[in-house]
């Protein structure tokens, strides 16, 4: 097993895949960090639940995120906050598909569908989405991996123990970073074994998903460069999460500075895609960090 101490960042960089093709779009991770804007069409998401259930509000908010610099829009119709109950396939489809259809014809950035259900992913891809963000890393629905292989779209594989309802019951690890790394490596190997394009796999260590608050999440960000050994672009989503609130003793709407700090360190340590609520300000943070890192 590779350990954080035995793998240098220089060795890891050699194996990174710098280019991701997503529909008609091309992401060159050697150039800059990319911003994924969050669109939750849910009544119960921890940060913005209920704000964008109205389709017109969802469309307007998405257009604003694109204007502010979002490179990808991630549309989700099922809350994944700790302790949440799953929604039915029919309800998730009802929430997301009309919005995806409208967005695909009205915005010029790729649409990602945030779902663990192959039925939702299939309908969303037919409606115009060009990426799948699966927090189960293809484990919850046996039809998901064949669908992604057949469609040839990028997929985000995320680490999580259990389900959103149970994940915070399982936050003790013998070696957190190595265990996450082993999980992601196994899921990458599985994805490639069923025909998913190796250059269209993105990994996410799963901030807030079955990690201790705040220590586990802080440890992931501090050691994020270790995951470069997987040779895949790293996505990270610290936006407004409980570990920031725990450190700063602040509510969800007051975590902007904590977001900025977490995102800055994540980019410095190898994150290539940042999943955020506050696109305008976090885009500026990413641009500043990229500029610093680009100086010889």
Write the layout of secondary structure elements.
Blueprint: H1 9-15, E1 19-22, E2 25-28, E3 34-40, H2 55-67, E4 72-76, H3 89-106, E5 111-114, H4 118-127, E6 131-134, H5 144-151, E7 155-158, H6 176-193, E8 201-204, H7 215-222, E9 234-236, H8 242-248, H9 256-268, E10 271-276, H10 279-294
Parallel strand pairs: 3-4, 3-10, 4-5, 5-6, 6-7, 7-8, 9-10
Antiparallel strand pairs: 1-2
Helix pairs in contact: 2-3, 3-4, 4-5, 9-10
List keywords for this structure.
296 residues, alpha/beta, two-stranded antiparallel sheet, 10 helices
What does this molecule look like?
The chain has ten helices and ten strands. It is an alpha/beta fold and 296 residues long. Helix 6 links the parallel strand 7 and strand 8. 47% of the residues are buried.
Brief overview:
The protein is α/β, with parallel strands linked by helices and 296 residues long.
